[in-house]
Amino acid sequence: MNQNLDNMITESLVLRDWPLNIDVDMVLRGQGADASVIRQRRPQLIGIAQRAIEDGKQLIKPAVVYRHLSVASLHHENLVLKNGAVLTGELLALHLAPAEQIILLVCTIGSALEQYLAEVLSTDPAYGLALDSFGSTVVEVLSVAACTYFEAQARRRNLYTSIPLSPGMVGWPVDEGQAQIFNLLAANLIGVTLNEYALMIPAKSISMILGLSRTPFTTGRTCDFCALRDTCRYQDHYAPAISTPIK
User: Fold this and answer.
1) Angle made by CA atoms 174, 175, 181, in degrees to the nearest 5
2) How far apart are CA 103 and CA 234, in angstroms?
3) Residue 12 CB contacts under 8 Å (≥ 6 apart), including other chains
4) What is residue 169's three-state secondary structure?
5) pLDDT in tens, 173-212
């Protein structure tokens, strides 16, 4: 195949209205609980989790902003883009060496749920914790759905994709990675900004990079490069959400 990937370069674009399915078990796992045990020992928490899902669905606005950019070269730990920008990090050099293009993404569910959570957490902590878990679960599922969407696009063009790489993973510090992504991506189009600590606002947001290439990338899992990989009990719990957004 002799496809010119430069034809895919875009400015920042937005995809909204993602159909995401969240169930009680996912919310309970997000709280560090075993759903089967909870059903036997504390069944009242099932109702609380269900309430959090029903209320939370009215408050979220899942959105993804993304941008395609072409890669010029890789020098040591510097991924040089054709627009002159440079992305730096050991993690990027390890995984994006074959990349001919990258996709920058930021996923968010908006700020309304967090605002409501701040109101209810002190008066109804059990419900507040379930609501917080719902929000974290939704943005995680949204990020998986977004990756699945772009991976499907790549397959149709006979292209390979890398694993998703996020600031904060081993080899790409949060302060460095977030600044690099937000300097190139108009995340404000979906209401996401960075504070002085390089943390995203709203907090229920995820930033990522995917590589695209006509040759395979190094195999592996995103969890293998997470700083919590040795202690996390919930690796790979979220199955890919095969869904297509409304453009």
Assistant:
1) 80
2) 26
3) 65, 66, 67, 185, 186, 187, 189
4) strand
5) 999 999 999 999 999 999 999 999 999 999 999 999 999 9
